[in-house]
Amino acid sequence: LAATQPSTNWHLKENAREHHTSKFSSEELIVRRGQAFTITFNGTEKPEQNLIFLAETGPKPSKATKTLATFGISSTASKEGWSAVLQSSSSNSVSISISSPHNAVIGRYKLSVQIGSSSPSSLGTFVLLFNPWSSGDDVFMPNKAECEEYVLEEFGIIFAGNKNHISGFGWNFGQFQGDILNICLSIMDRSLYYRQDPVTDVSHRHDPRYLGRVLSAMVNANDDQGVVLGNWSGKYEGGKNPSSWTGSGEILQSWKKSGFKPVKYGQCWVFAAVLTTVLRCLGIPTRTITNFSSAHDADGNLRVDEFYDADGNHLERGADSIWNFHVWNESWFTRHDLGPSYSGWQVLDATPQEESGGIYQCGPASRYAIKEGEVDLDYDCPFVFAEVNADCMYWNYDPATGKKTLIFSKSTEIGDSISTKAVGRDDRVDVTSDYKYEEGSAKERDIFKKARKKLGLEDKFDPTAPTQEEIEQKPDISGKFKVAGSLEVGKDLNLLLVLENLQSDAKTVNVNMTAWSTLYTRRPVNEIWKDSLSVTLAPKEEKQFPIKIKYPEYHQQLTTDKTIQVTALCHVQDGIQVLVQRNITLDNPAIDIQVLGEAKVNKEVVVEVAFTNPINTEVKDCVLQVEGSDLLQGILELRIPPLKASEKSSTKFKLIPSKAGPKHLLVNFSCDKFADIKTFKMVNVVN
């Protein structure tokens, strides 16, 4: 018998094409489970002799944990286990088609062959991934266009801003670039679950439900030295401002290069985007979801309480909060533990908000269970249900006496314009109706009651809850803030406070107004402006009061989230208080990208980026950051000279695209007066 080490031809190109893994650029075979792949190897003189194959993964491969398979040649592929079918043989080489089961553990495998009675010889290693194209797989997605978007697409759009003013920015998921797959495999091997019991952890890696939960914990740094460290302070020294990232690649590479130290810093969309990259890379269909007016219900009572003092200042009191927006993930897989109607999209959230099972992880929560108020089902349904459904209570709090009085409550405030990117297009799709029945409908209130009942909230007395009398009291006046003019950093902010007397007798009102810069979580950071006014409203009269906050008044107070909360607390003589508030997100000035000429594979093409300084002072410390999968390697950083008032800058640079098809170029421009102006451009690369 030949004792030489067999040499293996992994047929990388053909197998990758069959397995939808051509986008990986790897010298190692990467295939999907439940589907055959072909290899050829030599060093066998008589192929019809007994060939026994061994496929093994994890630290202690065993048949009991399904991390070791031994299989011989059979006439057809097995439906159940691993199998090998002889394709062809010559005097010294043999071609074999190897199939793995639909529920195989995913990860890196070692493949060996035993010829006759000799000891096994290694054929090499390959990586096995989930297979959304295969009907037997838990992640099977029947719609091919959805597979393309949610597994193979490296570009995404994340929605942000607030419910009155939704904006979107591009993100480079980059799941097929460079070393990302290896980094994703090492994330799994660094989880607390693996550290506590590596053998059991690896044996569970056939299950997307298990991996989704483990990875939601590993993407944040809490508990396990995971990938990204969160920071919601508004101060980002010692790291990068969360708004400055444009893709997951730089974050994952930095984590690995630093010896697996958490990368500074992230906020919700960064956690969600990195989790999208990791799950798409492993083959689980995944997308980012943005929920506007998102509740963080810290105490699990399906109610969020906000407190204001007599001057209308928003107080940081209590752990509940309402975020202008929050970004999480949905991944697509079967829920064998819950039953068929709960399969499909599952909510995962890697942002560290509340502990679950003792660590910061969240999900998978079945989206169908959330819509139906089935909050007793695994995992973390009450928290996700509250994010889209909690009732809002607005209180006036007197710090001197500790007394709180309900101003008003609202059940339609939370969970607005839930958004995700369209399949195959750069548009927004609203998925609110997949999370809840129509706001204000009887069905929606019934589901809310059902959820409260399941959580045991209906029967127990809650001393912190307002009385029915407080909830039902009717205000004498109504108010709202209207925007007059554009909402742009660098321009004055013009608003109208509109007050209307709802009664048929005159009302005297004292109004205390404030404007604070906030984070996107509505956490107040700096006071920008305050004022007060007294007004008498005739019966049924409506009056408008113009408010102007000039750019020099707010620009130094503004956070990089560019958000301002404006509040008017109206003290009505002999009536109940009325709170008028509005959260405003300012837009950055525009930046423009032009591709000069046709983009061809391996040919230089010039790109021009133009920016005009819109303010009447010089801007300096200008930096342009550019990235895009298959358009350039890594990130290009260009420093740009200062720009005088109204001056236009034009910067040119060269790209050499490496692959054909529709690719996205992402640009991030920052200077001392404007943070992280983002834009993207689709570039169609031809061969």
Describe the structure.
The active site is at 268, 326, 349. Ca(2+) binds at residues 389, 391, 439, 444. It catalyses: L-glutaminyl-[protein] + L-lysyl-[protein] = [protein]-L-lysyl-N(6)-5-L-glutamyl-[protein] + NH4(+). By secondary structure, this protein is of the alpha+beta class. The protein has four domains: 7-129, Immunoglobulin-like; 144-455, Alpha-Beta Complex (Coagulation Factor XIII, Chain A, domain 2), CATH 3.90.260; 474-585, Sandwich (Immunoglobulin-like); 591-685, Immunoglobulins (Immunoglobulin-like). It contains 14 helices and 38 strands. The strands form ten sheets. It has a six-stranded antiparallel sheet, sandwiched between helices. It has a five-stranded mixed sheet with strand order 2-9-8-4-5. Strands 32-38-37-34-35 form a five-stranded mixed sheet, with no helix packed on it. Helix 7 (248-257) packs across helix 8 (268-282). It is globular, with a radius of gyration of 29 Å. The model has no long low-confidence stretch (mean pLDDT 94).
